[in-house]
Specification:
single chain, 73 residues, mainly alpha
Amino acid sequence: MDSNSAGSVQYDRWNEDNINMNVEATQSAEMRIYNRVCNGSLGVAVKAAGALAALVSVYIIGYVTGFYVHKCS
């Protein structure tokens, strides 16, 4: 196969001394926390727990408000 033909792929050699595989160390602390908490199955669980907490808080606020609005004097 001719290397100059259309559709051929040319690969460059890697310099093994220059490869940085330590991606986690270059990320900020906020991005590491965000990636751990907001992505994947843990992220789904955190979002579901947050939605449930919001629903319960709205229910409690509505219950207390309704109690004091409709309170018989």
